[in-house]
Structures are given as structure tokens and as C-alpha cells.
Amino acid sequence: MIQHLAKYWWLFVLRGVMAVIFAILAFIWPALTLSVLVVFLGAYLFVDGLFSLVHGFRIMKRDSHWWVLVLEGLLGIAAGLVALFMPGITVVFLVTLIALWSVVTGILEIVLAIRLRKELKNEWMLVVAGIFSIAFGIVLFAQPLAGVVVIAWWLGIYALLFGFLLILAGMRLKKTITS
User: Fold this and answer.
1) Predicted pLDDT at 148
2) Is 133 helix (H, G, I), strand (E, B) or coil?
3) Which residues contact 132 (CB under 8 A, 6 or more apart)?
4) What would be one Pfam family of this protein (predicted)?
5) Cα 147 from Cα 164, distance rounded (Å)
6) Residue 177 near residue 9, CB atoms below 8 Å
7) 28: buried, middle or exposed (CB in 10 Å: 19+, 13-18, 0-12)?
8) In the prediction, which pLDDT does 36 show?
9) Global pTM value
10) Which letter, b or e, does each residue of 143-155 get, where b requires 16 or more Cβ atoms within 10 Å of its Cβ?
11) Closest among 9, 87, 102 to 43, alpha carbons compared
């Protein structure tokens, strides 16, 4: 499995870079109206989901656990489409949507890390990303009435750390190709 993931290491890096860009936008404009934040979030979730889906399908013929990335991708695409095409509903359920997406994505990242534990050194980066994602979701479930600025900062911190961890994981995967 590691060789198949390593072949597409750049997808992890690209997802990480997208998360870092999203984080920067959240920090620069924390007081954006909630509807604009929903559009940014919807675009991020949709594109991140597409990349996960592509990654999963690229390894499908060579690995029996391709479904983890496909499921993560489908979840991201669905959440992104809801945010983009139903912004009124999304505004009402933004915190719950983000929390649910974060928890499920975190669980799937941990599942992937467990599958890679015998093939990849330092798979802990994916585990940490997954744990961080789950913790972020739990915090959002616990604080549903937090202000828009606070949510923007939470999202920014989450996306920044998650993005850096994905970039690090992608670079580790790239090193397995050259080793």
C-alpha cells in the first residue's frame, strides 16, 4: 500500500497547501460574514474531497483499502456541495457540519495510519492529524454558539495544523520513493 500512496505523495502535499491557504484567509478576514465563510469552507471541502477521491481511485486496483480515501473524498464533496448550494441551511448548521466532517475525517485518517503502520515510519503524523481533527470536532460540538470570529480562528488554526501535517506526511511518502 505504501508504494501506491507514495506514488501520489503530491496529493497529500496539495491538500495540505490548500488547508494552509484556507487558514491564511481565515486569519486575515476573521470577521467575514458567515455566508462568505460558508463559501470558502464549501470550496475547500469540495476540492479537498475531490483530491481524496482521486487518490483513492488511483490506488483502487492495487490496494484493498482504497475505500478509506474514497469515503473521505465523498464526505468532503458532499459537505462542500451542501455548503455551496444551500448556504442558508449551512449557516444554521455550520458548526455541526464542520464538527461532523472533522470527526469523521479524523477517524478515517487514523484508519489510514493504522493500515500504514507496518509500511511507513513516522505514520504518527497521520495519527496526530486524525486526533487533532477529532478533537477539533468535539470542541465545536461543545461550543455551538461561538461567535463567527471565533469559528474563523478555530478553523484557521485547525486548517493550518492539519495542512502542515498533511504536507509533512506527503514529503515522507515522497522520500519512500527515493529510498
Assistant:
1) 60
2) helix
3) 106, 158, 161, 162, 165
4) DUF308
5) 26
6) yes
7) exposed
8) 74
9) 0.55
10) eeeeebeebbbbb
11) 87
> What's the rounded Cα separation, in Å, for the pair 104 and 178?
32
Number of H helices, E strands in the chain: 7, 0
Residues 176/2, Cβ–Cβ less than 8 Å: yes
Q: How far apart are CA 110 and CA 128, in angstroms?
A: 8
Q: Contact at 8 Å (CB) between 81 and 42?
A: yes
Closest among 11, 12, 9, 2 to 166, alpha carbons compared: 12
Position 151, amino acid: I
pLDDT of residue 35: 66
Geometric angle at alpha carbon 10, from 49 and 105, rounded to 5°: 30
pLDDT in tens, the chain (179 residues): 677 778 888 988 999 999 999 889 888 877 665 667 788 889 999 999 999 999 999 988 888 888 999 999 999 999 999 989 987 777 667 777 778 988 999 999 899 888 887 787 777 888 998 999 999 888 878 876 665 667 778 788 988 999 999 999 999 988 887 76
Q: Is the dihedral of CA 65, 67, 71, 77 positive or negative?
A: positive
Q: Are 73 and 50 in contact (CB under 8 A)?
A: yes
Question: What cell numbers appear for 98 in the block?
Answer: 464542520
